[in-house]
Amino acid sequence: MSGPAPADPTRFRALMGRWATGVSVVTATADGADAGLTVNSLASISLAPPTVLVSLTQDADTLAVIARSGGFAVSFLAADQRALSERFARTIPAAEKFAGVGVHRGPRGAPILDGHVGALECRVTERRAVHDHALVLGEVHHVETGRDALPLVFFRSGYAEADGPDRLRLPLPRG
Known about the structure:
The protein is of the alpha+beta class. It contains 4 helices and 14 strands. Strands 3-2-6-9-10-5-4 form a 7-stranded antiparallel β-sheet. The longest helix has 9 residues, at 61-69. The chain is globular. The mean pLDDT is 94.
């Protein structure tokens, strides 16, 4: 006996676009090379021990670097860092992504983007393939509180924009 068919991917994507998310860049380093990509699929999983989950496509170059290094960092972007989000979302060589970008290293060596609103560095504790993505669990070993600024938020396939020092304006519905 079979169950109902999966939801239509286009409708599912449209619905998930109504879920406002923060924007972060996941980075890693291995064999002297840095890698990174923009993600909004990030969740806090546990406080004891502190653990986060990131979801990356199986073909992401950063995933291979995370696998080799056994760790990763997450930089939570500020509202004025949209250009970094867009840069790290592009499919370009990692060296281009990091060119001219201010970074510092976490204690385990992963690059952390300067100017963030918060960052953490993790040791991978589990990786699981789920369809076209890999779910990576990381135990948090380093936490940084960044500058006091509005977060970069993604909603309805667009970025929220700062509307003063303490307010975000979300994109209007299309159509």
